[in-house]
Model the fold of this input.
Amino acid sequence: MVASRRLASLRHLLGVAILASLTAAAAARADEAAAHAHFAAGEKAFADGDYNAAVAEFLAAYETQPHPDVLINIATSYERVYKPEAARDYYERFLRDASPTSPLRPLAEHRMRVLRGLPGGILVDANKPGASVRLVGEGRALTGTAPLRFEDLPPGRYEIHVELAYHRPFDQQVALDPGAQVVVSVRLEHETETLTVFSKPEGARVFLDDREEGVTPFSRPVEVGQRRRLRVELPDYPAQSEEIDVLRGHPVRRSINFKKPFRSGRSELVLGSMFYGGLAGVGIAEASGGPRLDGVLRLLLDTGASVVGIGVGLLVSVLASDDDMKVGHSSIILGGTAWGSIAGVSLAYGLKLSGQNTLGVTLLSGGLGLGAGILVARYNDTSPGDAAIVNSGGLWGSAAGLLLSGAIFSDSPAALGWLTLGGCAIGVVGGSLLAWRIEVSRGHVAVVDAFGMAGLSLAFAVGYGLGSAGNNGLETGARYGLGGMAVGLLVGAILSRRLKDDVGPVEAVLTHHDGRWALGLPSVRVGAELLPEGRDTRVTLDLAKGEF
Done:
């Protein structure tokens, strides 16, 4: 009974073993058939010149049923698509796995010798064209300029050296495999040195080659080997500029002490005193009896009195001033003398005084104006801009009174005097109030005055020409001149609104921006505009600013 059970078990195990053997044999036959199919497809692709497809089929055949001979087919196909490294790997695998007596071994060994000596190439490309390139290795030393390709190089190790003036040199080792093509990308960096700029006061703007780079205290790397234009600007101070050479190993350091330009008002005071002294001398000579003399004697008297007056003015102004006198002080002193004298003449005309009395009142008023100017300069420390506003107010106030009297009371000297006196007083007071509220430069005031004078002159000429036909040229000219003066002053104030203390009068109207000049004058632009109703022409009148 037990023996019969053992026999049944033995029969079962034997059946399982036979079934497994038959299954494995069937799988082996299937793999062999698939491998043969892939190999045949690879041979066909190779014969058709489709070497990439041949590689894929030979690889599939080898993976399905590995055989060393298939490695020769794979390596040969890789050679045809010029992949020498892959071809060399598969030849090496064949030599390792194949039988020592394989008839294909000599072929594999020969191809290995060929592939190991296959020349390659190195391409050196730099971000700065023209850089010099030197290649050393395997008994060779080659030079050229980038971009440069070295061809037919034997396998081995090479040293690449790239350099360019004022740039950091570049060095790299390259291992060139047989048949390989290597690309060396070189990024040359410009050598730099530090530029440091200090200033007193700080906060000055630093420009390099007209490009703003920062404010002081300033420090940054600057490329060497170039001449650079350095300019440092600070409001209310003269700009400092120079050419600097940035050299290797020599940092550039600049310390700038800004000093406001000092302009003495002494010269202005001396010239003004000489002019006023000359006029006063002629006036005194005329009031003392000049009209009773004949022509030659009267001329000699006036000339001598003028020379004496100029000398007195020179002597007094030189003795009473020094080189430290401020421009604002000299301006307000001269202005006070002038407006005092005009007020005296106007008062004398209004009171219908005689010539001698008129001279006396004029000299007295001029003296009072001189004293007032000295007091204002002493206790108020008048700036040049403030003095210019006050003097401009007196000028245009007097001109307005004179023109108004000519337009309304052309035949009344008394009206001329009173209106001129009132205009002068209003102008000086108005200019003083304006100077108290705003701060401008002399150049700014000069630009506005120039426009006012141009408007007055042009309008008066037009009015005088229109009124000449009716024998009232002066009256018409005065009316037109009054309006032209107002328009000129307004236009001048608008156009010079950009003028700063550190800009000359010319730059208020003629400006410079990004290398281009522009006029700060009214402009007219004509262009087409697309509206819902269709295209239309648009005319733009620009009154407040110029076009760059």
Observations:
- The chain is about 55% helix and 20% strand.
- The longest strand covers residues 192-200.
- The CA atoms of residues 385 and 441 lie 4 Å apart.
- Confidence is low (pLDDT under 50) at residues 13-17, 501-519, 543-548.
